[in-house]
Amino acid sequence: MNLSLFDLFRVGTASPALRVADVEYNTDEILAMMRRAAERECRFVVFPELCITGYTCGDLFHQTALLRAAERGLERIAAATEMLDCTAIVGLPIAIGGRLFNCAATVSSGQIAGIVPKTFIPNYAEYQEARWFSSARDAINKDIEICGCTTPFGTDILFRVEQQPYIIIGTEICEDLWSVVPPSCNQATEGAIILANISASNETVGKADYRRRLVRSQSERCLAAYLYAAAGPGESTTDLVFGGHSIITENGMLLAEAERFDFGGKLLIADIDAGRLLAERRRNASFGLSKRPESAFRIVKISQKQTEAERLLRPVHHAPFVPDAPDERDTRCQEVFAMQTTALAKRMRHTGLRSAIIGVSGGIDSTLALLATIRTFDKLGLPHNGVTAVVMPGFGTTKRTRSNAGRLSELLGCSLRVISIEAAVRQHFLDLGHDENIHDILFENAQARERTQILMDAAHQSNGLVIGTGDLSEIALGWCTYNGDHISMYGINAGIPKTLARYMVEWAADKEFSGEIPIVLRDIIATPVSPELLPPAADGNIEQFTEKAIGPYHLHDFFLYYAVRFGMPPAKIMIYAEEAFRGKYERGEISHWLKIFYRRFFTQQFKRSCMPDGVKVGGVSLSPRGDWRMPSDAEYAVWLDEIS
To answer: What distance in Å separates the CA atoms of residue 571 and residue 577, rounded to the nearest whole number?
Structure first.
């Protein structure tokens, strides 16, 4: 696949083996790393600070022989880029008149495209750079003569890839990032989507964690990719040790990180999603307002071959709504649960109501809603019997789900009501002249609407609030009956996707409840997802499976996340999904369910246009009053045309 067609750009950081002050050796190692990067279709690679000479040369920086050797090394590296199809940023000292500057040189297509000097010169603790180097603020020249040609020089330079003009690269050097207002902030507001930092940065205890947080934070603040290339162990001398802690991040997400203290050198490669970053910038109004009116950058064009690749080189998690690490997942569940209970508590305090009504089916969603409502009552100091759990068995209710719903309600101390809907629905069929043996959409939806009517009337009976149980995934797909389970007085699960809801019930079983309750909860988790609107199988088990009808929820949640959160086009979602579900689903299966997702997402908007209030808990919300505004009659042909 051509990565550029999907706004992707393959980048790298390199920490080569080097010898202090051995320019020829260092240049050879840099060129070897560049060749390795080019072989892997990497189009842009960042090397460490002063990598041509070594960072720890000390007073040798005043030696003309070293400076001349560095310039010859730069010339060799620049020449190599003509054949390598790889742009690089390398570090070296450059003397201009009576001053010496710590510089980052960008080389591309056989030429030196531009040179950026370091602004913030550290002169504290182990750092004594002011002994040798001047700040970029002392520079006078806008262009300099180097390697026999005139080259742009200064901190006002950005590099734009001609073949992908949205790829704009900004450069800073080591300490620049540690400053109060790093140069990369201004570079980002001027359009830089990739920020490169060539660094030395020696190791001390705890510094790696701080460095990682700093790099991730800066990429997140700037809505950019941040490439940090640090000097490796070969730089170590006298009192200092260097680890080669290179990092690639994108909007706060860690894409790649080098193992430290490897004398052999490290090359990291990852695919940056420029389209995703641009989408984030477009939706973030504050980003555009951050641009400084007085700033002016020179744009230097670089030419770069497009990348053909068999697969993505970036982590793509199959469950974007659910953290992979257990501790982080538990923290997410706890936080979402707190949002649910706080939101519902505010609604109940505002309305003055002291009772709640929930239709409990023995499924994941109604269970989560019930647990959150119980904890809301705890927060408000109200007794659990103020929560009325209504079990409404119908034609498809199985013994397992009915038993779990009733037993859980009793264990939680709810007021339990069991109201069969069969007689009422049969009367409804009789009034309509419908044969109940015809299991069509009327057969299913009549049951859902009868249940909603019971809940609404029971709420009036007890002066209570009907708690909706539908989740974000069902809302996205319209997997609810209009004016049936589509309606409630407050949708406590409205911001929670199905893939997260299951983990939240599991978390509640492990962390929030004790005794027999976790046993019941785990059996509910193990129960197949079903609306139970069709009669059970002959053995009494569930016959109707939701995911057989509309597709796997983990696929639909994946599609939802990238389609809504980033506005990603379907063809690109396909590529992401192939990477995330490699070995689990073939391309044809992904394509099939993606088409169903878009058809349902578009045709079911009318249900979302009049959905009840519900708490927003994450970056994807489909509330028509908040994050999502979409016409109910929009066509989906443009989206389906992209899916093959």
So the answer is: 10
Would you call 357 helix, strand, or coil by DSSP?
Answer: strand
Determine the pLDDT at residue 4: 86
Task: Tell me what the mean pLDDT of segment 536-546 comes to.
Answer: 78
Q: Which residues are known to be catalytic?
A: 49, 118, 174
Strands of the sheet containing 99-108, edge to edge, are 111-117, 99-108, 87-96, 44-46, 8-15, 266-273
pLDDT above 90 covers a percentage of the chain that reads 87
Q: How many domains does the chain have?
A: 2
CB-based contacts of 16, cutoff 8 Å, min separation 6 = 26, 29, 30, 32, 33, 47, 51, 232, 265
- Mark whether 428 and 284 lie in a shared domain: no
**What's the whole-number mean pLDDT along residues 325-333?**
95
CATH number at residue 406: 3.40.50.620
For the cut 90, the answer to whether the pLDDT of residue 227 exceeds it is: yes
Based on the fold, state whether residues 144 and 283 are members of the same structural domain.
yes
Query: What domain range is 94 assigned to?
Result: 9-302
Q: Are residues 413 and 298 in the same domain?
A: no
pLDDT at 367 > cutoff 90:
yes
pTM of the model: 0.92
Lowest mean pLDDT among 32-41, 119-128, 503-512: 119-128
Q: Are residues 220 and 253 in the same domain?
A: yes
Residue 580: inside a domain, yes or no? yes
Q: Is residue 455 located within the same domain as residue 564?
A: yes
Residues 223 and 332 in one domain: no
320 lies in some domain: no
Long-range contacts of 526-530 (CB under 8 A, 24+ apart): 527/362, 527/363, 527/364, 527/400, 527/401, 527/404, 529/363, 529/364, 529/498, 529/553, 530/363, 530/396
Contacts of 279 (CB under 8 A, 6+ apart): 566, 567, 568
